[in-house]
Amino acid sequence: MRHLIRLEPSGHEFHAREDESILEAAKRAHVPMEHGCQVGACRTCVARLLGGHVAMPAGTNLSDEHIAADLVLPCVARPRSAVLLEVHPDVGPIFGALPLPWTD
Ligand code: FES
């Protein structure tokens, strides 16, 4: 099954299958997304889930605090519905008082 993925604030849209990561689908659609390791370790791709559902594997490099704040890693997140993601190169304003994902 394929689901519509929309990125904010860019407005980019593409479809992703349930058996692929959102980053893999973005690459196939030639939609630019920041990324590094592609295995859930570096957190370069971090985004906030604004709507929809994703499946995230266990053992990623997100803290419980990050997960509680709806942060996801598109390089390993697989869609389970239509998904709206907030993706921004400067995550500080988005993630507010949370520790920046790459500084702890
Ligand atoms: S690219 Fe490294 S965690 Fe997603």
**Share of residues in strands:** 25-35%
Q: What is the tally of beta strands?
A: 7
Structural class: alpha+beta
Please provide the ordered H/E string of secondary-structure elements. EEHEEHEEEH
Intertermini distance: 37 Å
Total helices: the number is 3
- CATH architecture designation: Roll
Q: How confident is the prediction overall: mean pLDDT?
A: 87
Number of domains: 1
Low-confidence stretches: 100-104
Report the bound ligands by name, code or SMILES: FE2/S2 (inorganic) cluster
Fraction of residues in H or I helices: 10-25%
At the fourth level of CATH, the homologous superfamily is: Beta-grasp domain
Stated plainly, the CATH topology is called Ubiquitin-like (UB roll)
CATH class term = Alpha Beta
Strand order of the largest sheet: 2-1-7-3-5
The 3D shape can be described as globular
Please compute the radius of gyration using only Cα atoms: 12 Å
Descriptive notes:
The chain has three helices and seven strands; from the N terminus they run E-E-H-E-E-H-E-E-E-H. By secondary structure, the chain is α+β, with helices and mostly antiparallel strands. The protein has one domain (2-95): Ubiquitin-like (UB roll) (Roll), CATH 3.10.20.30. The strands form two sheets. It has a five-stranded mixed sheet. A two-stranded antiparallel sheet has the order 4-6. The chain is globular. Residues 100-104 have low confidence and may be disordered. The structure holds FE2/S2 (inorganic) cluster. FE2/S2 (inorganic) cluster binds at residues 35-38, 40-45, 73, 75.
